[in-house]
Design brief:
11-stranded antiparallel sheet, single chain, alpha+beta, two-stranded antiparallel sheet
Length: 302
């Protein structure tokens, strides 16, 4: 009988302990955790309470308060020197700007003829823009305002046929360089003459008449005075790519227009007035006689 009562008391005590275990859980380090039912639509039955969540969270990082003073300047890192990349090679020919050793300016648009006027001081060097052979040389200024003959308008001039097959003209020269005559081979940069104002440039500032064309005989003077617009090539040779070549453009234009197209712009000459007064009004310069003994251009035979 005594043992039966002990058994009943043990059952009651176990039930009480089991009920307590279901109503309370033990958190970390022995902290009690209150469990809630899902009936109140709050936290899950086994989730932490609000107090426990706050206790378990990491301590907040303090937010810095900006000062009212001037912020320090940002020091940018020192950069390396830029790497210079050479321009692409566009042809096998190497060119140089036709006026050497002087400050110059020139037009970059069409003005009557497809050529350009390179304004430069008196005596500046006119040099071969590319290696080639001297073609035409006119060392005598035969231009006269009374006739304004087209073949003489560029005054003293030199042309070369470059190794690229293109003809280059430098006109209005003051002098032709020693040793420059038809058939002489020259390198790019070789002195051909000195900038002046011969021909119909006598009333202007000194300049170089520069033109690009193809080879013809001297009687087709309108071809040598310019067929291809030169300023894009001058820009490249002076400041950019010295291998930009006018060869393709020149040969394409020659194929299209023919080797000796007709003159269409500034072709006619004036009829001279044969009076003593007119003759006296046009004094010769640099020992020129003023006599027109033909075209006066020495050229390599085509």
């Amino acid at each position: 009988m005594h043992s039966g009562q002990i058994a009943r008391w043990a059952s009651v005590v176990g039930a009480v302990l089991l009920t307590g275990a279901c109503g309370q859980a033990t958190g970390p380090a022995g902290v009690g955790v209150t469990l809630r039912s899902n009936a109140d639509n709050t936290a899950p039955a086994h989730g932490p309470s609000t107090a426990y969540a706050a206790a378990a969270a990491s301590p907040a990082t303090p937010t810095p308060t900006p000062s009212g003073g001037r912020q320090a300047d940002v020091q940018r890192p020192q950069g390396d020197d830029p790497v210079k990349v050479p321009p692409p090679k566009l042809s096998k020919y190497t060119y140089t700007f036709p006026v050497k050793g002087c400050e110059v300016t020139y037009s970059r648009k069409l003005l009557v003829l497809p050529k350009t006027t390179i304004w430069a001081p008196q005596g500046c060097a006119f040099v071969a823009p590319v290696a080639g052979v001297v073609d035409e040389v006119n060392a005598k200024n035969r231009w006269r305002p009374s006739t304004d003959a087209g073949a003489h308008r560029e005054g003293r001039f030199v042309t070369i046929i470059g190794d690229d097959g293109v003809r280059y003209l430098g006109g209005h020269l003051d002098t032709v360089a020693d040793g420059i005559k038809p058939g002489v081979r020259v390198k790019a940069g070789r002195l051909l003459g000195r900038v002046g104002r011969s021909g119909n440039a006598r009333d202007t500032a000194t300049n170089l008449y520069f033109a690009i064309s193809w080879k013809t005989g001297p009687k087709f003077w309108w071809v040598r005075r310019g067929m291809v617009e030169p300023w894009d090539y001058l820009d490249a040779w002076r400041t950019g790519n010295r291998t930009l070549s006018p060869r393709d453009e020149t040969l394409e234009l020659r194929e299209k227009s023919g080797e000796t197209p007709r003159c269409t712009v500034l072709c006619a000459s004036k009829k001279p007035k044969k009076t003593p007064q007119a003759a006296r009004s046009e004094p010769s310069s640099r020992g020129d006689t003023g006599e027109d003994d033909g075209d006066g251009v020495v050229s390599v035979t085509p």
